[in-house]
User: Fold this.
Amino acid sequence: MLHTVNKSPFDSQSLKTCLGLARSGSDILLIEDGVYGALVGTAHAAMLDQALKEVSIYALGPDLKARGLPEDRLIRGIKVVGFDGFVELASANDKVQSWL
Amino acid sequence: MLHTVNKSPFDSQSLKTCLGLARSGSDILLIEDGVYGALVGTAHAAMLDQALKEVSIYALGPDLKARGLPEDRLIRGIKVVGFDGFVELASANDKVQSWL
Amino acid sequence: MSQTRKFMYINRHAPYGTVYALEGLEVVLIGAAFEQDVCMAFIGDGVFQLKQGQDTTDSGMKNFSPAYRALGDYEVNRLYVERESLEERGLTEADLMPLTWEDEEDDWAEKPSIQLVSRAQLSGLLEEQDVIFNF
Amino acid sequence: MSQTRKFMYINRHAPYGTVYALEGLEVVLIGAAFEQDVCMAFIGDGVFQLKQGQDTTDSGMKNFSPAYRALGDYEVNRLYVERESLEERGLTEADLMPLTWEDEEDDWAEKPSIQLVSRAQLSGLLEEQDVIFNF
Amino acid sequence: MKFSVMVNEGPYTHQASDTAYHFIRAALDAGHEIFRVFFYHDGVNNGTRMTTPPQDDRHIVNRWSELGEAHDLDLVVCVAAAQRRGIADADEAKRNGKDGDNIAPGFRISGLGQLIEAGIQSDRLLVFGD
Amino acid sequence: MKFSVMVNEGPYTHQASDTAYHFIRAALDAGHEIFRVFFYHDGVNNGTRMTTPPQDDRHIVNRWSELGEAHDLDLVVCVAAAQRRGIADADEAKRNGKDGDNIAPGFRISGLGQLIEAGIQSDRLLVFGD
Assistant:
């Protein structure tokens, strides 16, 4: 199952809610303002480090780039994908849940 | 100075940000989904109990009523006002800041 | 289109502050005509949608809470409420509207539609679905 | 209208995910023509508006970050960034665009427009204002 | 006292427009003056006459038009925000090559300067939004 | 694979419409089928031809119309959501006593059943919103 999160974790509970409900082995894709959740060294980074032991986390490259977030500032283990990768994730998983 | 907060504290940082920046003696009015912040016994009630030592907190009656929140479920010390009271608060304070 | 699919409508918004709860409910009511396997989940501020005693007379908005009572008649009778979300908000099951449905297969016995589930249970329910809508 | 008023534009939204940052900046630029006493505050996710290196080529949106560099020319030269908000987001001042203005009264010396302020300082600045806009 | 109000969200989707409306009514009831109501961001969508809400719900657009007429309110829709979202009066429609306009009675389209002026001229400015 | 996409926010205000657009383009590029794009909530505001964004910005509405034409996409605007927000085609305008319509080329107005059908008929349904 693919989960998408499009909100900043600094302002919204969406990422926290997603991580609380995503099963082990799930794919999670951070898009739009959700990509701020991929930043290293933030107040939420420990939550993501913990989550990465159970789930795969991706961040949408075009959204990172728009916001000036280079790959070397991301939490280790988070993979960057383009829209083609988004489509692949949506195909490879049996369904998609958007945590808005 | 009057501060208004229109977001639920369970989903948004607006109330927390407001309380962090409001000076002692300020008036704070909870409106729209912000009135959920007035509920007693929640995960955020301690934050409001603490704030009430420094600021006055009001909640908009029509918004409480729409959401089925009776006065006996509110944190002690929070006052309920109508739109007339909102206008009075906006007049009595020198300016209004909306924490959206 | 003989296949029945599992639909879950997830509600995460409080009512009135935004339109998502109201327009989400409209989707559920229309969707009921399609005879799929339907359930609803109430997570986070979504649990406030089911709060008893909503009264919009003073705010001029449309009180759509009575429509939740119609869900049982449309065979939408599994409303999962996340227990942790209720607790964080200082609410108990007694704060929620008493929603029921009549079980045709059990001599039309009236049964509760709302089921409190833990986060872990809800996580499992999510996995079982075919299609998930978010409101 | 001889009186000069103190205007503060508070920015609390990240750029691109929503339009508030872009349309807020449009207000500031128009407002600059009215020769009021203007400052901006960046709180919470608003600090992301000033992040260096924004590049929208792959997302097809309009990159409006260069417009912040024009603020100094419009005499909008006090941009208060809440230090606590930066720190929660793992950012330092070096992550922000180097925005400057030229001080006419100091032989056109180039000076930084961005000032990091503590939450307590920002609280005091809020109290000094006459009109506060929120974006 | 002289109030101005800024409305930043469209009708129905967010409660901001409702709250602004009720605040203004209460302010008028208390004898205050409304200098201007400025519609910005999605707030411009309050100013379209194409709206047809369900019969059993409030008609937010008509309510603004009626309150505006009753109290001679200055209901200003921001031109830049309106262009992004498809709200136009006859002049704007002509200027942008559109085949018709959709602005509701009692609203006018103007620039952001009207908002700044409201901030300067009013004793209080209130922002309602998301 | 057969995708359907739901777009719940209007153009410019939220990025949802942009993300949905780029996802659909990438899905088409990868050889997938788009069964339907359903516009709900403020998403209906993607379907007005009255929009005139600044010259230096993308034209979100035209982009949908063009993509729709190029790939014969079924771009459906929800009728109930459209009525609340003032989006109408010729039939709707007539039915509701409006003096004109504003729907953009390539979009059609229909009921919520089209969304449910998309959920039943598609291999994947993706929701983009706020």
